[in-house]
Amino acid sequence: MQTGPRTVPGAVARTSSFLDERLGAAPLVNRNLRKIFPDHWSFLLGEIALYSFVILLLTGTFLTFWFKPSMGEVVYDGVYAPLRGVAMSQAYASTLELSFEVRGGLLLRQMHHWSALLFIGGMMIHALRVFFTGAYRKPRELTWLIGVTMLAIALLEGLTGYSLPDDLLSGAGLRVTEGVLISLPLVGTYLTFLLFGGEYPGEDVVSRFYSLHILLIPGVLLALVSVHLVLMWVQKHTQMPGRSRTDANVVGAPLFPSFAAKTAAFFLFTLGTVTGLASLTQINPVWLYGPYSPADISAGSQPDFYLGFLEGALRLMPAWELNLLGSAHAGTIPLSVVVPALVPLGLVLTGMALYPFLERWLTGDHREHHVLERPRDHPHRTAIGMSVVVFYGVLWLLGANDELASTFHVSLNAITYAGRVLVFAGPALAYVVTYRICLGLQRADAELAGHGVPTGVIRRLPHGAFTEAHAPLDEEAAARLRAKRPVPALPAARAAGGGAVPPDGLRRPLGRLRARMSAAYGGEKVPLDGDAGHDRSLTR
Question: Where in the numbering of this chain does the Cytochrome b/b6 N-terminal region profile domain appear (predicted)?
Answer without folding.
Answer: 15-241
